[in-house]
Design goal:
Keywords: Disulfide bond, Glycoprotein, Membrane, Transmembrane, Transmembrane helix
Radius of gyration: 28 Å
Membrane topology: Single-pass type I membrane protein
InterPro entries: Ig-like_dom, Ig-like_dom_sf, Ig-like_fold, Ig_C1-set, MHC/Immunoglobulin, MHC_I/II-like_Ag-recog, MHC_II_a/b_N, MHC_II_b_N
Transmembrane segments: 12-31
Largest sheet: 6 strands, antiparallel
Order of helices and strands: EEEEEEHHEEEEEEEEE
Organism: Cyprinus carpio (Common carp)
Number of strands: 15
Number of domains: 2
CATH topology of the largest domain: Class II Histocompatibility Antigen, M Beta Chain, Chain B, domain 1
Number of helices: 2
Mean pLDDT: 82
Shape: elongated
Structural class: alpha+beta
């Protein structure tokens, strides 16, 4: 998959903002204030899946004012005011600093971008169960539940089929629920009057499935996996 947009990766030091409060007398004359905020903003940007166009930037900001920045395309720091220019010259003359910045293009940006892309490509199919919320009786109003668990990525389509035809009314579905482990769950509810000989099933479509998964009510009715729903 080729990305047609810029992605900012939020792993470790990428796109992180480290804020610290400083009370150096050096800045009293330059930035009169009671509190000082210094930000070191590191960003990795790319649009190609092979990461050949990866760009690593570092921005040093003081009280919302950009002092100097490093750009991997230039291979050096650039200052934007008197203090920033002095700071940039200082960094550019430090061999170890410049070597570190070049290495971080690989160790911070590309290494974590590969993890990001690998995670984005990961596909885990859902586990699906269908059951009634109470003892089901033919001829009486019943609510059936279709539960899809532990799938990734988030996109999923859950529909109900009555005798093979899609049901559009009397269906309520929950929002996606994040399990906190890069997997999701979703639940759909159908209210209907059951009739003998008329099959009811839940159809689930997901990128982790080779084809839509159709689960007939009754197949899991007598062997329901007990799970605690996320509230």
């Amino acid at each position: 998959m080729i990305y047609d947009f810029l992605i900012k990766i939020n792993f470790y030091r990428i796109a992180w903002i480290f804020v610290m409060f400083v009370a150096y007398s050096l800045f009293n004359s330059l930035f009169p204030s009671d509190v000082y905020v210094f930000q070191d903003i590191d960003e990795c940007e790319f649009s190609k899946e092979d990461l050949s166009d990866m760009v690593y930037t570092v921005k040093l900001v003081f009280n919302q004012k950009l002092l100097c920045s490093y750009d991997s395309r230039l291979g050096k720091y650039v200052g934007y005011d008197e203090y920033g220019i002095r700071n940039a010259e200082h960094y550019n003359n430090q061999t170890w600093k410049m070597k570190q910045q070049k290495e971080e293009l690989e160790t911070i940006c590309r290494a974590n971008a590969r993890l990001y892309i690998k995670s984005e490509k990961r596909k885990v199919p859902p586990v699906v169960t269908v059951r009634s919320n109470s003892k089901a009786r033919y001829g009486q109003l019943t609510t059936l539940e279709c539960h899809a668990y532990d799938f990734y990525p988030q996109a999923i389509n859950v529909t109900w089929l009555l005798d093979g035809s899609e049901v559009t009314g009397d269906v309520v579905s929950t929002e996606f629920m994040d399990n906190g482990d890069w997997s999701y769950q979703m639940h759909s509810y159908l209210e209907l009057v059951l009739h003998r000989g008329v099959p009811v099933s839940c159809r689930v479509e997901h990128s982790g499935l080779e084809e839509p998964l159709v689960t007939l009510w009754g197949e899991t009715f007598n062997n329901v996996h007990r799970r605690q729903l996320k509230i």
